[in-house]
Amino acid sequence: MSTKVTPTQLSVQIVGRPAEAPDYKNAEIALYVNTAIVVKNGTLSGKCTVDLQFMDQHGEKYVAMLTGRTIEGLAQVIAANQPSDTPATVVQPMPTEGGEAI
Q1: Which DSSP letter does residue 21 get?
Q2: pTM for the complete prediction?
């Protein structure tokens, strides 16, 4: 089955509790994120992208590329749906070999 997806579209579903989320336990293939790569200047306009590398139970590899804008949009949805008594998480930059944070 082939589905045409426009790269600028992302369907976001919000559910109130885990029981309302899809049940992936019986999925034919389970993919696990094993690496996230931040690509500076990943877009033609010079903005960052994130490549998520997945692996299945047979060792086959897959990749999904997300723009920074997509990740920022998802972060806004998450922030808007957090309970008000949940403290914000502060993420510290990860140093690289050259000492520059990504």
Answers
A1: S
A2: 0.59
